Amino acid sequence: MSKKNYDKGSSNIVIAIVVVLTFIGIALYATQGGNSGSGAPVLANSNEQFAKQVAPDFSLEKLGGGTISLAEYKGRKGVVLDFFATWCPNCRRDVPKLNSLYEKYKDQIEVIGIDLHEDESTVRKFVEKYGVTFPVVIDSGSVARNYGVRYTNFHVLIDKDGNAIKAIPGDISESDILFLINQE
Asked: How far apart are CA 145 and CA 102, in angstroms?
């Protein structure tokens, strides 16, 4: 093998290593939601109770007018954040059940439906079709990002002191609501 061919092979190996390392870096960045350090999402995607963390506040426009913020419930009652999309089959199954739980426990908890970046008229039709009575907002992505949400039908429980205490990927149950109520 000549020195010229050896140098060409060496540079190809170096290029291949750089490409592989770049893809690994991109994959790690994507799996961390693009956040690191103090700007990291408040929650991990797990169905376990975890150390209390202050829930990031937000203020968004509600369907039907007005605004809603997480801070307005601090000291009053716990909150369930329901991250959903109208096209999500699991959300179509879960939202009516969550609405029923909201109707049963609305004196003790609040539910805020957070649609993930869909058109207002589409969300409005969904809300009407499923008879949703809890407040619904449309997130352009910032709230979901702050909570580490990577997919739909994802819930976050926030106690009345404003701490995120549990993440629930998938359907929510009455026992989850009772868990939140009993955090007082």
From this structure: 25
Q: Smallest Cα–Cα separation from 156: which of 99, 101, 84, 76?
A: 84
Question: Cβ neighbours of residue 165 under 8 Å, at least 6 residues apart?
Answer: 49, 50, 52, 157, 158, 159, 180, 183
Token output for 3: 């020195």
Question: What confidence tens digit (pLDDT) does each residue in 83-102 have?
Answer: 999 999 999 999 999 999 99
Given a cut of 50, whether residue 72 has pLDDT beyond it is yes
Pairing, β 67-69 against β 59-61? antiparallel
d(CA 78, CA 141) in angstroms, rounded, equals: 23
pTM for the whole thing?
0.75
